[in-house]
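Hey, quick one: can you model this chain's 3D structure?
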Amino acid sequence: MSIEKTLLTRCDSKCELCGSTNSLAPFAVPPKTDITVDNCVMICDTCTAQIEDADKMDVNHLRCLNDSMWSQVPTVQVMSYVLLTKLASESWAQDALDMMYVEEDVKEWAEKALLSDGEKPRDINGVELKKGDDVTVTKDLPVKGTNQVIKQGTVIRGISLGDDPRLVSGKANGGQSMYVIAEFCRKK
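Sure thing. Here's the predicted structure for all 188 residues.
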């Protein structure tokens, strides 16, 4: 059986978030990118649009998460957790999050999805930084735990990215490796 047919059987040909039967398609749950039964939810176009563009989020439509959060399918739990977290300013969404129970591995997956979802390290101008980029420090930065200062204009070559999207790491002036807040850098 194909992946799509297996997913349609699992969800009874209904969106796994809102229950709609219109225009269903598999959606890989971040940070996963491959389309497999264990990495995807089967969702409608409306839910897909709201996941992919936060500006299109319809709070009333997403009240469906009150039901989908109780799914036994881990990918559905992850998507429900991610969307409820994004809507946590809404009292109903915060209440749902407070009630929601997920296994530890599912919660870790959801936390990784939240980190990977749109949060990329960006320089002072909002330009996305990638592994291997060279950056210039835009202001004097004190080095935690020492009395050293990374001077404005210092070039950090071949940066690395970690789990925290706000930080980049690299060696300044050929010295020891250190972390620098990405928004205090400018891509060369």
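One thing worth noting: The helical segments are 3-11, 45-52, 65-68, 74-86, 91-99, 104-116.
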